[in-house]
Amino acid sequence: MSRLHVVTGKGGTGKTTVAAAFALALAEEGRRTLLVEVEGRQGIAQLFETEQLPYEERRIAVGPGGGEVYALAMDPEQALYDYLQMFYKLGSAGRVLRRVGAVDFATTIAPGLRDVLLTGKACEAVRRRTRSGEFRYDAVIMDAPPTGRITRFLGVNDEVAGLARVGPVHNQAQAVMRVIKSPETAVHLVTLLEEMPVQETADGIGELRRAGLPVGSVLVNMVSTARSGLLPPDFDPARYTAGAGRTALAKAFATAGLGGARRGGKADRLVEPLLREALEHTARVATEAERRAEVADFGLDTKEFEMLTEGVDLAGLYTLAERLREQGVPR
Length: 331
Known about the structure:
Blueprint lengths: L3 E6 L5 H12 L5 E6 L5 H5 L10 E5 L5 E6 L2 H13 L4 H8 L1 H8 L1 H17 L11 E5 L3 H17 L3 H14 L4 E7 L3 H16 L4 E9 L19 H13 L10 H31 L5 E5 L7 H14 L4
Parallel strand pairs: 1-5, 1-6, 2-4, 2-5, 6-7, 7-8
Antiparallel strand pairs: 3-4
């Protein structure tokens, strides 16, 4: 069973929302999950309608299963201080580094260092134990960089281990990669049932596999066909755009109490905009069916999240978590 769940996806697919719902869904009774944000956007705080997250693990929610959800907004500077203290016992070095601007300088000229610190902190949380010997967190969910950068982000410690042949840096990099490339880790890809996100997901799966990184599930977000039951499966909007079909539809609206059916009446005026929506909906259903077949060809476990028409607020987040629990949370 995986304990580090890395959630990635093309920009605009809602990966932060899916990662948050994932953390809630895993928070069963007696379990504790940690939701980690690495891109500094404070998206988790916005979703959970709380104040900005500091660089500390803070409880932000109780899952629908009764467990606890903690969150951590990663800070490369603070992660470097932790690193220095953990491996070199240089806790006071942080104040000096801050004064001389060494952290900003280092992460600018060596951007890979930032990824080393962030992945290292997440893996430390995965392995951390309480005094009684139990894992501090049952699962760690990382809201990771987009698909186009995820393989480099997760594999950076392999490069570091190759550069630093001996010493604590080498040992730490190897320890991180042992976690990331083990069955403890699963990389889940968020997509929409649209051409470009599905193609980027396919490319991402290939890159992850070539790098020897563990691919988990495909998480399909904002699916509109969950609401397709509003229209009969054989409904054809084109039959109602003119003539007797249009008249019959206007009469049906009038019968439902939506105004008069005469030409130019309220019910008649509703026909055109509602048919337009129906046409868009049926076209979307057809497109989703094509893309769903492509996703099925990946041969991976797939979960779907319905589109929330009112947008994603805290209640909507719990709704998505429940939907994931109904389908079976990826383990």
